[in-house]
Amino acid sequence: MSQDSSNYEIILSPQARRALNSLPLNIQQRIDAKILALAENPRPPGVKALQGVRGLLRLRVGEYRVIYRVEDTRLLVIVVQVGHRRNIYRRR
Does the 4-83 domain belong in CATH 2.60.40.1180? Predict the structure, then answer.
């Protein structure tokens, strides 16, 4: 069995943490599971680059979106923003 040292560390921005904590518990749990899975595979199937903003990726979780950046050299995933699809892109 291989070590977990190749897994990425996940960091949530204060804004992303506040947004996640403000959601209903069942939605928080679904999004949290998807974010934690990024530690093993930061670019899972279905993830797309955010248009117009270099280096940001978008992960769909039902009606919600997780916007994040991957730093491969540091094995780091930085979650920038979490929110409903109708609101998430307005602040970019």
Answer: no
